[in-house]
Amino acid sequence: MSAIRFNGSLPLTGHDREMLLSEMHATKQKDANWREGKTWSLVYHKDQQHEAFIKQAYSNYFSENYMNPMAFPSLRRYEHEVVRMCANLLGGDSDVVGTITSGGTESILLAIKAYRDRAREKRKFLRRPNMIVPKTVHVAFDKAAHYFDVDIIRAPLDENMCVDTIAVEKLINRNTILLIGSAPNYPYGTVDDITALGRLAKKFKLPLHVDACVGGFMLPFVRELGQDVPAFDFKIPEVTSMSVDVHKYGYAAKGASVILYKNMDYLKYQFVVCSDWCGGVYASPTLHGTRSGGSVAAAWAAMNSIGHTGYVDLARETMSITEKLMLGINAIDGLEVIGNPKMTIFAYLSKDEKLNVFAVADLMEKKGWHIDRQQKPNSLHAMVTINHKMHYQKYLDDLREAVSIARQQPDLAQQGNAAMYGMVAQVPLRGLVKNNVLKMMETMYSSENNTFGSSLDSIGNNKVIDLGVKMLASYSKAKNRLNGLLNGIKG
Ligand SMILES: Cc1ncc(COP(=O)(O)O)c(C=O)c1O
Which pLDDT value is given to residue 464? Predict the structure, then answer.
């Protein structure tokens, strides 16, 4: 029971701090339990000592505003050193330059803005710019396309779930400004053939961005362990930029990614300068205005405290957990890991039509696991971190049991989330799905939404089920209308 009754306004007088802290503690109890390894994305936790240390680094700069590096040269030093360390890690030379951003999405947004503006300046006859991305590329590129008015053209995958570079070549046209590859991609953890993309970049004189948001702090170390990691970084001369997140496998505090460019001839297009503002000349390297210095300081502290051998050790252990998980999953009758993941992210599907993976996901959630579902093909996703060391065995045991129940009770596939996710994945009219999801967001962000008392998941799920029912109804209506029309034509 909440001690505070929210009535839509500021409390007339402030509440007691202790009471507020205990209210927050109580409210938090229904959140995803990442400390016990129940989440397979969202949180990258190394250990409690490390957490306490980066919190301290963060709070040392909690109030400093990184909007103005001139005022806080210590933060500028950390940014410079973090950028240099990342450039070095990813095969860059001393010409490589970059900035710290708030996360992978911001790094990607900025790269697309920079390439768009560069192309506008250098290619006088450019009409509507486009970029060619693998089908698996992170949705941040869709966001960038949306925000910066660049068309996004999706290339299909080959049999290894990597981008089909022959298809990429066919998609390049005179308005193409950029090629993109992932190392690795989020959905399957596979690494695109960056060398082949580099050959295309050279042939068509195009820049090439590699999204290593998730792989930047893992692949270099996995390679050092002697595992097969294809070339993916600045060592390929045609790679002109890379995004790499320190707040993922770099185990920094949230709010730290790095965008790197081959040289200043690219980075300079990221900057915005307003020389006529009454408030003074304003120069901005990234999307943000005001921004805490905490995440910059914590990124520097995390990297310096873990160090190269620390990251190699983390990679060794996390890879070992991942291999055990993938072996365990492949050993469960009906389940199969997709493709050939190169590091610690993977997805698995059901190869048995009698076994519904979304029903398995529902059963896993009943056991407290927070499961990420994917579509095309329907699959379940996992991003493994060192925090799963003590929990992966339980995940496998629960998964085995969930699969056995899902087989015994095939009706589960027609109920709850399983039915809804299955349906959403299958509806051929994707515009319908998009419109319904937009409506769901409007409901979620409406001024009346006060359903936070239940767990976030159940709000999400109720709305999502509601969405499924509505969509099914609109879909069958549209289908009937189309059938009617076709019959009319035939008649
Ligand atoms: C491959 C890849 N790129 C980009 C991003 C976006 O990163 P962020 O969530 O930090 O914005 C992610 C996030 O998981 C990712 O996996």
Answer: 54
Global model pTM greater than 0.90: yes
Compute CA distances 279 → 276, 290, 330, whole Å: 8, 15, 61
At the second CATH level, the architecture of 307-417 is Alpha-Beta Complex (3.90)
**For residue 272, how many other CB atoms are within 10 A of its CB?**
13
Q: What confidence score (pLDDT) does residue 465 get?
A: 53
CA 325 to chain centre: 21
Contact 117, 165 (CB under 8 A): no
Which residue has a Cα nearest atom 6 of ligand 1? Answer: 104
In sequence order, what E strands does 114-167 have? 130-134, 151-155
pLDDT the model gives residue 488: 64
Which of 213, 286, 381 has the most ligand 1 atoms within 8 A of CB, as the residue to mutate? Answer: 213
Q: Nearest residue CA, atom 8 of ligand 1?
A: 104
Dihedrals φ, ψ of 347, to 5°? -135, 155
Residues with CB under 6 A from ligand 1: 103-105, 138, 140, 182, 185-186, 211, 213-214, 245, 257
Pocket test for ligand 1, best of 105, 141, 143, 147 (most atoms within 8 A of CB): 105
pLDDT value at position 431?
86
Distance 16 CA to ligand 1 centre (A): 38
Residue ranges of the domains in the chain? 58-302, 307-417, 427-490
Give the nearest ligand 1 atom to 185 CA.
Answer: 1
Q: Per-10-residue mean pLDDT for the chain, 491 residues long?
A: 85 96 94 94 97 98 95 97 98 98 98 98 94 98 98 97 98 98 98 98 98 98 97 98 98 98 98 96 95 98 98 98 98 97 98 96 96 95 98 98 97 88 81 85 80 44 56 66 64 48
Residue ranges in 387-455 assigned as alpha helix (H):
392-408, 416-426, 430-444
Q: Are 252 and 299 in contact (CB under 8 A)?
A: yes
| CATH architecture of the domain covering 58-302 | 3-Layer(aba) Sandwich (3.40)
The Cα 160–Cα 65 span in angstroms is: 45
| Nearest residue to 163 via CA among 120, 115, 124, 131 | 131
Nearest-angstrom CA–CA distance, 366 and 386 = 24
Going by C-beta distance under 8 Å and a sequence separation of 6 or more, which residues neighbour residue 16?
none
- Give the pLDDT of residue 439: 86
- Please report the atom of ligand 1 found closest to the CA of residue 248: 10
